[in-house]
Amino acid sequence: MKHLFNAHEAQTIDLLDNEMFARLQSNPQELERMVANHNKEWCIIDEVQKVPAILDTVHALIEGKKIKFALTGSSARKLKRGGANLLAGRAFVHKLFPLTHLELGSDFDLDLTLNYGALAKITDFTSARERIAYLRAYTETYLKEEILIEQIIRSLPPFRRFLEISAAQDTEIVNYSNVARDVKSDPKNISGYYTILEDTLLGFFLEPYHTSIRKRQRLSPKFYWFDTGVRRLLCGTIDIAATPKSFEYGSLFESFVINEIYRLLTYSERSFKLSYIRVDQSLEIDLIIERSGLPTYLIEIKSSDFINDNHTSGLKSLARNFPEGRRMILSRDKVTKAIDGITCMHWKAGIAEIGIEQQV
């Protein structure tokens, strides 16, 4: 917001400021007098979820005074759960994610991103020690601000354990019963915990693909954490760097690529549906992309830097089920090649080939 507006164009209200928070919490209508005194076209309110009642005044100012607002915050969960005025039809909703490789440009480093993630502040640090300290502070702040202060859950210890287990199972199919057993909770609570992660933009579900919605609902989704650095901090692997050819590196690479595609598709504001296919333990397609007017993409993600016909068995097995589908392998291999009708590309080139790079 600071880059988009200068001080002459917009008034800024920061609800992290204790005095400002107390002032508006006790009297949300005070916002009208504050805006009138500044007489500016735009008003920026940060951490708006801290005072949900303020949105009624925002609504009135939009309608009556034609004031334009930019409302930012780390979570919409409190607004949704509290029955706040969500300004339906009067506000555009934009989600912001960790930085993409396009935003980082020449500063992007794949191995650094896999190990420490792409939160905006992480680029300020030059040593592993600083990056880890920041990630640890970030996760503790999240637990304090989002969970305790907003009273999303009643008991923090089981949720802490859940965070560790869900991070360790990133990219895997969710088994609520198994997680509940490890957390010493029940599946209903675990389902609620995952919903908290989704509502606070800390991850998203990847649903199983099926042409029948009824059958789709009987299958379990996968869950992808939003940032590889936060994932590694939570599951306790952050102190040892993940290296190519290791199991963790492959899992991190899959998580990164799918998150990257999800972020860029979200920013492109085009309708899309992401899913995966699991036939059995030996046959799985990591990502299915369905977009209106374009072929369905069937994508396998491999962290190898050399792709050969040993990597194509899954896509070849399902070829007859998707006669019009575009089959692709995205990897670290910089040489584009075709193997048995399957296009094998470097992951950056593959994202551009899918057609989402130009629309960011």
Return Rg in Å.
22 Å
CATH architecture of the largest domain: Orthogonal Bundle
Shape: globular
The helix count comes to 15
The CATH C-level name of the largest domain is Mainly Alpha
CATH topology of the largest domain: Arc Repressor Mutant, subunit A
Total beta strand runs: 11
| Backbone structural class | alpha/beta
How would you describe this structure to a colleague?
By secondary structure, this protein is of the alpha/beta class. The chain folds into 3 domains: 10-81, no CATH class; 101-243, Arc Repressor Mutant, subunit A (Orthogonal Bundle); 270-359, Trna Endonuclease, Chain: A, domain 1. Helix content is 41%, strand content 17%. It has helices spanning 18-26, 30-38, 54-64, 77-81, 101-104, 110-116, 128-149, 156-168, 176-183, 187-199, 213-218, 228-234, 247-268, 313-317, 347-354; strands at 10-14, 42-46, 68-72, 203-208, 222-225, 272-280, 283-291, 297-301, 326-331, 337-339, 342-346. An 8-stranded mixed sheet has the order 5-4-6-7-8-9-11-10, with helices on both faces. A 3-stranded parallel sheet has the order 1-2-3, covered by helices on one side. Strand 8 (297-301), helix 14 and strand 9 (326-331) form a beta-alpha-beta unit. The chain is globular, with a radius of gyration of 22 Å. The two termini are 18 Å apart. The model has no long low-confidence stretch (mean pLDDT 89).
Task: Name the descriptors.
360 residues, alpha/beta, Arc Repressor Mutant, subunit A, Trna Endonuclease, Chain: A, domain 1, eight-stranded mixed β-sheet, 41% helix
